[in-house]
Each structure stands twice: as C-alpha cells, then as structure tokens.
Amino acid sequence: MGVNIKAATISAVAAAILLTCSIVAWLEIGPDGFQAGDVFHFIYARVYEVLAVAGSTGIGRIAAVVAVVLVGEIFFVGWKASSLFRMIFIRSSSAVLDLLNLMLMLLKWTVFLEIALTLGASFVASKLIDWVTSQYGWSRITLPSDGLLGVAASLAVFWLATSFVQYWGHRLSHTPALWHLHRFHHAATELNMVSAYRQHPLEGVVLRFLSLVSPMVFFDVPQRVLFLYFILYTVSDLLAHSQLPWGYGWIGRWIVQSPLVHQVHHSIDDEHQNLHFSFCPLWDHLFGTWYKGTKRPSRFGIPDPAYELRPLRTFVLDAWTFYAGIGHWACSLPRKLGMASADRPPTVGMGVGDIASPKDR
Length: 361
Prior knowledge:
The protein is an all-alpha fold. It has helices spanning about 1-30, 35-55, 60-75, 85-90, 95-105, 110-120, 120-135, 145-175, 175-185, 200-205, 215-220, 225-240, 250-255, 260-265, 280-285, 305-310, 310-345; strands at about 140, 220. Residues about 345-360 have low confidence and may be disordered.
C-alpha cells in the first residue's frame, strides 16, 4: 500500500509540473501558435538553463542533478530514511567512503589518482582515445532532432546502443581480470544514491577504452538528445543505487533499471551473483543474466570485509593485484604463443621457407 501511495504521489507531482509548464508555455507563445510539442521544448530549455547556471562543466551539472535527487528522495521516504541522513548522521564506513569518493570526483582529484596509479599512462591513453574517436566523425549516421517523435526515436536508439556497450563492459568488470578493481564498488555494505559514483580510478581508466566502440563513433547524436540522455541516465543511476522499494513495473523490467532490480546486483546472496548488469534490463533478458526469482537481498556487499577494516590499504592492494595479473599475463604470453606455434599444422608449398612440423625439429 505504501509503495502505491508513493507511486500515486510521484504521478501527481509529475502531472502538476507538466500542467504548470504547459500553461506557462501557452502564455509565452500565445494561443494561436501553441502546439503540444512546444511544452517539451519549453521544459528542455528551462532545465538546460538551470544546469548551465549550476555548472558550465559536466562535473557541475552532475553535482546539480545529484543535489536535486538527494533532496527529492527526502520528500518521498522521509528525512531519517534518506541517503543524506545515513551519510551525515549514521556515517557507516561504507557511507563515508561513498561520500569521500563523490567529493574527490566533484573536485576532479580522481584525475590525479588515475595519473598516479598509472604513472601518467591514463593521460596519454585519454588523449589517444580522443584522437581516435575524432577520426570517425565523417562517417557517422545523423540521428533526427526535429519534433517530439524524432527526439524520442533518437533517444531510444542512443539508449539501447549505449546500454548494450555498457552491459558488456560491466560483465567484463566481473571477470577475474578486472574484479579486483570493480569490487571497490561492490564493497558498499549499504546503498546510498552516491554509491553510483563509487569507482576505483583504475577501473575508469580501463573501461574508458570502451569509448572506442561507443555509439558516438557510429552516430552523430544531437546535443538535445545527449542532454536528455544525461538527465535520464544520471537520475535513474542515482535511484538505482538507493534502497528505495521501487520497481517501476514493466518499465523497470525492460527499459530502465529500477532500485529493486539493481539491489539484486549488489546482493551478497549466492543466488544473486553475476546478474542484472545493464541499466537497460532488455540486455539482461536477452543474454541470460536476468534474475527470475523473487528473493530480496539479505544484505549488500562482498564476503571480504577488507574495505570495512582497512579501506586505504585494500584500495592500494587491489591496484597492485590488477597490475600483478597483467604482468603475469604478459610474461606467460610468449610461452603460450610458442605452444600455439608448435601445435600449428605444417604449411604446404612455401618452398625454402617452409615451416617444419614438430616431428621434423
């Protein structure tokens, strides 16, 4: 009953905002030239102006959206059940780490951590990725940006394409090669909205290479669509990392990952492991990582309590473990290549340069 009341409240607030914007847009444009699509353009322009004032950079806009969503959560769940209350007054070690990580990101200090942990390689990699992706601009498909239907279609295409790449990047993070970086995110024993930004700097560096296959490489996406995507993704990601008991109905099962869906991904229970990777659940359904059960998580986090007991030491050791894995792989690569060459069948008809078969050596 409580969830239904909250859903009704959200719908009523959204309807009131839409009605207010419609009336204001009708008064500004005038009754003669007013059309239904003008409401969308009116809302878009006003929200864009507000975020532009909040910050001229992406970080500034993220901070503005985070602040609005955190305050909005209080309206729906109450002060003592909100993420802000838990972070400020309860202050568990998990929440403190979440808040500290958010501050480092907003202050752009995570960039210095990336450079330090990679000995400057992250800076070179970023410049290389920017240069490579800029070379594909001439061949991109231009998505429509005119009219409400055109913008909606472009947003749908970009949402599906981006979430497809994100799905496989997230699944990659759960493989042994990258798990020691990604587990910092999963070590949160409670979910606050800002847990969405709890990421090991090295993980961000590695996954940045996914931009080489980003939908931006293949599509020329209008600024308006990118802005709407930014709002939709940021808000839905913040809500997904909350402890709100919201499922969004069929939308949460197929289009936008809901809090209830993502809570399963962060569950410590065995039957919930390696499920619900995508912020668009469609891909989890298609690739067999959708949870078909009904059990709610007993608690969140990972079995290893190292981040609760020794967070800084564990943070550094995870980076060391990642590099040790790369070193081991690099050292074993020549041996593996040699074994592959030895097992390769002899090539026929190459004359003097024929490769000898193993029995002839």
